[in-house]
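User: Small ask, check this?
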Amino acid sequence: MSLKIARKIHLYLGLTCGLIASISGLTGALYVWQPEIMAALNPQLLNVDSFNDISEEKLLKTSQTLYKTHQDSIGKIFLPYREQQSISIIFRDGKTFYYHPRTGELLGEKSASILFFEDLLRIHRSLGIPKIGKYIVGGSAILFFLFLLSSGFFLWWKKYNLNFKKGIKIKWKRNKKRFNYDVHKSLGFFFFIPLLIIAFSGAYFTYNTYYKKGLKVLDSFQNISLDKKITQENTLDIHQLLENPNKRYSLRAIYFPEASNPAYQFRYIQNRFIVPGLRKTRELKLNEMGKVLSSTSFYSDPLSEQIALQFYPVHIGEIVGLPGRILVFISGFIPVILFITGLRFYFWRERK
């Protein structure tokens, strides 16, 4: 790649993908702390006294009682997970209510701050644009890590590979044009790897089908026996599953049949709350007669599926705990800084 072509790629993608990356970065940085912020703003809905004393059996029993009470009006039930220690129900009319996991007492309706973070996530993933927005964001993420970051690194390497210290140094007492350039090239170098990982993992949420197809080449190296179906029971029902806790997983959510998906979906997670390490899940699907349609588990899934599960904790930094979340939070501000400094550098050059 010639320097001239690299500069053109970096310029035009910086003016387009750089802007979208700035929006995604800022919204993503704020969303990193969504669990803590939500819990602080909504203690009456999300926090429960002595939650650790509530057993898994009790959580399921309360969920079963709520199900018996509301029956066909329920669209989804969410058990405690991440910042939420209560049980929430999304009804078919679109309303969401929160209930005490021990007593089943009504705690309240979805708050404005919860709605705000839902909108924030929608902007992060799709710019708030229906249907095509996620493809704009996902496509920009791919262009960002394949061409924008790589062309920037190529330009940096060509200029500073023989003088590394100069390539990362910011001289604070310089004219504003030179300082602007120093900030751009130094931050671009230091955050090259974090931004690369965040952009690559972020594009997965739009193009997960293609990612999984690519990852399937790794399945040939796997030597475990894959058991994707439950063979011990012909049929199950919601009451059986709520009366018998899974020994390895905690029930996270129940999705009830609807026109677009006429099946019950039971989603399980190994750890209810944020912990470092691999994300391990289980999913069970039943038809309306209780027949098992599919059953997946991290421990029996193909390697490609196990890896695919890790894109979310990698993207948000949770896979390595608090240090990872802090790094992702800081990295979220870098695209907008690079966009502004790059834009200023471009206008100064054009004016010259």
